[in-house]
């Protein structure tokens, strides 16, 4: 009886700390982060494991679940995990990036507590510190719809997670040394599917099994560092049904380009001859194509997979045209009972336009990346903590870049923080003047990717925006010499990372933060700092400010 009372009190305490609803179920996890020897490309190397696993454990959740993850850092370096695509409503304290959190020191632990509030879909988590992502530490996070909310397709026979990504055979410390010395990473050494590389004609154990006549759901995410990947399954069509938390119009595809940080859910019908088939992932837009395979086996099937792989598309125009086919399913319900299309984003007046131009340069002889002439660096005191303790002026300056980029070929290294007016509807233009593809992500939000087009953006381009059924998502790609336009309401108070998903660019400064402050300073808009939050930098040892109230 005493143990039951203690458990109930603990749950109530956690609910108060995180600001979540006590009636929603809790999922508890304990993760031990360690080094371990892995050989995904056949060469032993140091990897980062979670509970001995590479990739890390999968979190299986349902909308509105409260997720509690106690992370023990057994590495020799500070460490953080970020939950890509999880919006952390009113709770940027759990975002797990250096702009919001002190890293978990070696030999210590930190407990993340967050709610997947009003979200469904396929997401990933991964390290955000010190190029640890190049060594592993990543995994998947599924968020299922609640039973009362209809899903716009029949229940699949089973669900499979497919984590695809490029891979380097060198350790993250060596790769980090390259970047710190001013060298780029260069081309990846291979491609992995769920942590393994497969070759055509070489015996492989099946990764997944399908029963003839049934339909299966595959959640496909690109967890790599550098390369966009094309995903396809030999002899099978891919029916796209969900993308980064939104139900989509259910088009059929021969293959899908999955850019870094993106997640797609597809339905695959087991309607072919019962035998083995190759699942294929290959790099896009690199001079040298890297390809890997995995086996899908039909139950009781006989026959090896054909060694003739389905061809990959060529050029980025194909990928741009595919993007234009992605549409929001206006009649489907997502995490809430009301249809997705009931939110008419196209009728909202834009209050601010921000143009972000990515650039590359050298500072003191070393490679750096940035936006609008500024290459971000993380100060010793996380931006959010400095702001919360009213010490922002001692750590960083707001708005060091302008909404309209100035013409410059140089980069200045400093923290890059933009002030956002709470609840303003903002247009962000990502402009890419380089010859390589970019992939961008915003923490804490989903946005409407209303246009991706070649050339240079101008206000007249708004005439061609998709203001009806653009997909609400959290990443967008920008093709070479092209631009992308997104629309969103900054209604989630906190400090939120806007970054390149090409991780060497992020590490070398192509990121910034959006500071979204509620003038009310009320619990209605933002939760108080959790009691277990480590303090570092100039706020270490300081008493916490007076808490917000309703």
TrEMBL record:
Belongs to the multicopper oxidase family. It comes from the Eukaryota. The keyword Glycoprotein applies. This is L-ascorbate oxidase homolog. SUPFAM superfamilies: Cupredoxins. It comes from Gossypium lobatum. The keyword Glycoprotein applies. GO terms for molecular function: copper ion binding; oxidoreductase activity. Keywords: Glycoprotein, Signal. Pfam families: Cu-oxidase (PF00394), Cu-oxidase_2 (PF07731), Cu-oxidase_3 (PF07732). InterPro entries: Cu-oxidase-like_N, Cu-oxidase_2nd, Cu-oxidase_C, Cu-oxidase_fam, Cupredoxin, CuRO_1_AAO-like, CuRO_2_AO-like. Residues 1-22 form the signal peptide. Residues 32-146, 159-300, 381-520 form the Plastocyanin-like domain.
